[in-house]
Amino acid sequence: MIALSTVLGAVVAQNVFFYLIAAVMVIAALRVVTVSNMVHAALYLVVVLAGVAAQFVLLGAEFVGVTQVLVYIGAVIVLFLFGIMLTRAKVGAEDNLTHDNIWPAVMTAILLALVMVYAVFDYAKAPWSDNAREIDVLGNSPTTVEQVSDSIFSTYIVAFEAVSVLLLAALIGAIVVARKE
Amino acid sequence: MYLSQFLVLSAVLFCIGVYGALARRNAVLVLMSIELILNSVNINLIAFGAYNGAAIPAEVFALFIIAVAAAEVGVGLALVLTIYRNSKNIDVGEVDLLKG
Amino acid sequence: MHSLIAVEAGGSAVQATGWFLENVWVIPAIMAVSFLIILGFGKRMPRGGSEIGIAAVGVCFLLSLLTAGQWVSEVNNADNCTPETCEYIKSDNAYGGDHADDDHSDDHGDEEEASGFPLDSNGTAGDGEFAAGFSAFVEDDGSSKGASPVAVVSERTWWSNGGIDFTVGTMVDGLTVTLLVVVTLVSMLVHVYSTDYVAGDRRYTHFFAFLSLFTAAMLFFVTSANVLQMIVGWELVGVCSFSLIGHWWEDQDNSDAALKAFLTNRVGDMGLLIGMIILFFASGEKWGIIDINQGAIDGSTSHTLLLIAALCLLAAVMSKSGQFFLHTWLPDAMAGPTPVSALIHAATMVVAGVYLIARLYGVFFHGLSIGGSSINALAIVGAITTLVGASLAFVQDDIKKVLAYSTISQLGYMTLALGVGAWTAAVFHLTTHAFFKACLFLGAGSVSHAVHSFDMKKDMGGMRKFMPTTYKTFLIGSIALAGLPPLAGFWSKDEILAGTGGWGFFEGESHANGAYTVMLVMGMVTAAMTAAYMTRVMYLTFFGEFRGGHHDDHADDHEHAHADDHHDDHHDDHHDDHAHHGEPHESGPRILWPLRILAFLAVVAGFMNLPKNFLGLPSNITLRFEHFVEPKNATGYFPLISHADPSWSLAIFSTLVVASAVGVAYWYYFVKVNSQSPSATEMVNGPTERNGLLKAGHTMLKNRYYLDHIYDGGEPVGAAGATAMGAIFGAAAGLTLGFSLDNGLNQAFVPSLIWGSVLGITVFTIVASALRTGIGIATFVKRPLAYAANWVHENVIDATVDEVGERSVQGANALYKYVDQGVIDGSVNAAGRGSQGAGGELSRWSTGKVQQYATVMFAGATLLAGLLIIVI
Predict the structure, then answer these.
(1) How confident is the model over C410-456, as pLDDT tens digits?
(2) Strand partners, C455
(3) How many angstroms separate the CA atoms of C73 and C755, rounded?
(4) Does the structure show a pLDDT above 80 at C99?
(5) A105-109 mean pLDDT
(6) Residue A102 domain flag
(7) In this predicted model, which residue has the larger pLDDT, C239 or C840?
(8) How far is B100 from chain A (nearest CA, A)?
(9) What is the nearest CA distance from C847 to chain A, expressed in angstroms?
(10) What does the pLDDT look like over C448-464, one tens digit per residue?
């Protein structure tokens, strides 16, 4: 009995948090693409990225969530801010950050959204329908760092090495491209 | 938690990212929108991984995406800087050297 | 009472076989193909299509001779049959005893063997030969002969519905073969004759096309195996007759005559259809001629139905074969070209009715109780027709009209013969009549060719000097028609007179039949009249002084008041043929040779059927016609008729009668009229003008018994005339009905005369009104019909061929203009322009703006994804 209510409670809690975080993420993402202040856009992006990390944790992928925070929010956002600074973005609001004619983009986005949502509901069945597919996170216990690292360094070792080389190349490339002559 | 929740969330983020990539003038903002896209894909991936019970490959994949995305941002910004240095302007609407 | 021959059960019938007999459908097919070819290509041929027609009909004549030869050999083979050598067709159908009015109970022992005539309706290709059951054939003198072949039937089923099979096929026996030979021979001679007669005509090709079609239709009719085909052939020959009579339809009279022929035939055709349908249902839903006959003979068909059907068919025969009172179309049909009259209205089409009776003789024999002791409708109709026809022939001025009425009279003879049970005599007379009547008609045509007119009184006379060959052949034909020995007419007519059996009344022989004595008397009287009017014709045409030659311009020759005087319209095309009109001259060889051939046949044809034991000749020379033609042993489909004994006294008596008639006429014309003046045509103040009664009779004859008045509704008819007609008909009906009440001459005569007259007048009124209404209505459509037919021929058939040529030229031009210049050159130019344009358009898309590219890319990807997901 107690286990059941715990389970139910846990499930209910997950759902509540999911919707909260999702709402925040969507709003923040919308702000990213609409604000007139570049720094504000970057900060809203931080919110989105944090939300993504939270979703990862909800889905039981703790390591990825942490990595997300570390890499994205810690490094990528900093990079963006540096980029904003080095391209002499105005402090405060700017006017011409968005095209005047946004309708092609809007239509494309909406069309794409419709297609994708249709595909999703076709496969994964809407939450309110009878046979909606469920993610049973509690059943599948959250993955540990140990499992992930074991996997990387055994099954996906080649990919890992490749990504390393990629990072190296990117590093060298960025330096070469951005250096002063 | 239903699979479709995550997938719809992912789709929405993706579309917002697409919109941003197409509608924003500043190159850096375009890069930011592309980050949004990449993250939405990550959510999708992890969600499917959790649904299928094959979470580990999904997570590994997600890690690699993060790594690659970071590399991409680095290179991208380097490019933006170069363009800025050359034309003092990072309005993507005005970079039309490919015009034919 | 005809003494019937008792026969035993058993079989001595054998199945005849032979390639020609089984494939006789080829003969009408050849003529049909010839029709199509002439219609399509005739106008382009050097002789206008006539060479095709002549070739086709010549081939058909040869095939007919070969078919006849094969049949003869089959008969001869069967003669030598013994139970060991031949395979008999067996049946338990015993036929014997008097078959008067009571139904004959059939005693089929074994159903399967006596299956008689279920015609093989093969679904698969191939000939269906049938098996028939018969009784033994016993000669009149009691000796038993070998066997007799049975008609060859080959047919196939073309439709099957509800258990009824519709078959199409041919049936060949002696009768068929006789008609085949006669029709093709006369048709061939008429074809050759026509090449001279209608030369230069405006519708020469059309004429020959329809001659071919008519021959095809007649041959089809003659070789029919079932009554449906007979109906088809019957109607088709009627259509051809209509078309050919109205050949010069621009003249109102001609198209009127054609329509009258067609409508009068139509009235009779009602009877044909009703009769055939009754027979179909009465014989157990069978269409085959043999089935129907068998049903009638073995008694499985109810007698009442047979009687009704026979009477209905009699109506059809009356119209087609010109029996009284539906004969009125035949004299008017003389409006057509003379070859047409010779072929259709003398030798072939008009005998279609006689052929019908001969084919379905079982139905008539048992339906009308011909073998019985009282007279029947068929004999009465025939007898009256002979008298009427002969009487009317006396008062005609037009030579073709005389011959037309003579034809009516002779057809009456044939019907009379069939009505008294003398089947072979009728068929034999049909054959000989075809020869000498065609000879007479073609001779009349030859004369008219010379004087451009048919009016004996006005334009002829003394033609003997100018046209000796025509005169000789005409003379031979006339003698044959009159029936003087030893020409053909004598033998056939005498056989008919003997066949009536009435001679026994005077001689007291066992073949006496009191009722048929009347027929004999009527026949004898007619023979006398025939001789007399032919003598008149001879005098007016060939003797005396030439009265013609003063009609250079034919415009004033046309008298349209009455159809009596009828002029041949084709001279308009002929004027350049004759250097001078004053002196007529003999016709060319293409006209004379058919005359000679027919005259020859008129002389010798009679010897085909010499009477039994004639002058002690052996039996394989006498009665040849009867031997080969009459289906003696086929009592499955042919009733057992008796054959009257020939009688020397009858022969001598009839010859004397005819000779005296000739003498009287000769005296009247050659002596008395000629003594007035060589160019006189009749006696001034003659007996018909002095004697009131004779004058009244003459007037009635001149008005053709008022029948035309009644039918056409043209002139107001005197009440006297109409009442007279009705009374005559009523009397005839009363006589018939009275006699057929088995009582003979003296009892129940007066009361049956009264109610017979009432019935007769009623029926007559109905028929006359129908005809009158029909002709009245049709007056409006006559010309348009003819115009329409001509229009079709000119504009549809000819036009089609011309169109093809024109279109080809147009097509080639169009090809050059549109395809070569337009399409090919144009596409080359367009390719160049297209590239330019496309380049211009596409350059608008490469703006250099990345986001634009991205937008397009995303949009495209979305659409594709949407397509993939949602549709597929």
Answers:
(1) 999 999 988 888 888 899 999 999 999 999 999 998 888 888 777 76
(2) C398
(3) 54
(4) no
(5) 90
(6) no
(7) C239
(8) 22
(9) 16
(10) 888 877 776 677 777 88
Of A105, A108, A122, the CB nearest to C862: A108
Residue C124 near chain B (CB below 8 Å): no
Interchain CB contact of A107 with C (< 8 Å): yes
Chain C positions touching A112 (Cβ under 8 A) are 858, 862, 865
Q: Is residue A111 part of a domain?
A: no
* Contact assessment for residue C128 and residue C153, using Cβ atoms and an 8 Å cutoff: yes
- What is the tens place of the pLDDT at every residue in B17-71? 999 999 998 889 999 999 999 999 999 999 999 888 888 999 999 999 999 999 9
Q: Taken in order C577, C579, C583, C589, is the CA torsion positive or negative?
A: negative
Residue A50 belongs to a domain with what CATH number?
Answer: 1.20.120.1200
Question: Domains in chain B, start-ordered, CATH in brackets?
Answer: 3-92 (1.10.287.3510)
CB-based contacts of C61: which residues, under 8 Å, 6+ apart?
C181, C184, C185, C187, C188
Picking from A91, A108, A125, the residue at the C-terminal end of a domain is: A91
Amino acid at C153: V
Closest CA to C565 of C336, C332, C338, C342: C332
* Optimal mutation site among C844, C850, C869, interface B, most CBs of chain B within 10 A: C850
Residue A29: closest CA among A50, A48, A2: A48
- pTM value is 0.61
Question: How many domains, chain A?
Answer: 2
Q: Using pLDDT thresholds of 50, 70 and 90, give the confidence band for residue C825.
A: confident
Task: Write down the residue that tokens 């009579």 correspond to.
Answer: C245
Look at residues A26, A59, A91 and tell me which one is the last residue of a structural domain.
Answer: A91
* C862: nearest CB among A105, A111, A122: A111
Whether the CA torsion A114, A120, A123, A129 is positive or negative: it is negative
Residues from chain A that touch C865, judged by Cβ atoms under 8 A, are 112, 115-116, 119
The string of pLDDT tens digits covering residues C385-401 is: 898 888 888 888 888 88
Inter-chain CB proximity C869 and A122 less than 8 Å: yes
The beta-carbon neighbor of A147 closest among B28, B56, B93 is B56
Rounded to a whole number of angstroms, the distance from the CA of B89 to the nearest CA of chain A is 8
ipTM of the complex: 0.91
How far apart (Å, rounded) are the C-alpha atoms in residues C854 and C847? Answer: 12
What CA–CA distance (Å, rounded) separates C471 from C539?
11
The SS3 call for residue B2 is strand
Do the domain assignments include residue A128? no
Q: Could you tell me the CA-to-CA distances from C537 to A43, B89, C409 in Å, in that order?
A: 137, 131, 16
- Contacts of residue A115 in chain C, CB cutoff 8 Å? 862, 865-866, 869-870
In terms of domains, do A86 and A156 share one? no
Q: Which of residues 119-148 of A touch B (CB under 8 A)?
A: 120-121, 124-127, 132-135, 137, 140, 143, 147-148
Are A8 and A87 members of one domain?
A: yes
B18 shares contact with chain C (CB less than 8 Å): yes
What is the Cα C586 distance to its own chain's centre?
Answer: 31
Scan residues 66-95 of B and list those with Cβ closer than 8 Å to C. 92-93, 95
Q: What is the mean pLDDT of chain C?
A: 74
Q: Which domain holds residue A173?
A: 144-181
> What would the two tokens of residue C9 be?
């059960």
- Does any CB of chain B come closer than 8 Å to the CB of residue C843? yes
Q: Do A61 and B55 touch (CB under 8 A)?
A: yes
Q: Counting beta carbons within 10 angstroms of the beta carbon of residue A4, is it exposed (0 to 12), middle (13 to 18) or buried (19 or more)?
A: exposed
Task: Answer whether residue A113 is part of any domain.
Answer: no
Q: Residue C219 in contact with residue C60, Cβ under 8 Å?
A: yes
pLDDT on residue A72: 94
Spatial distance between the Cα atoms of C812 and C806, rounded to a whole number of angstroms: 10
Residue C514 has pLDDT above 60, yes or no: no
Give the pLDDT of residue C732.
61
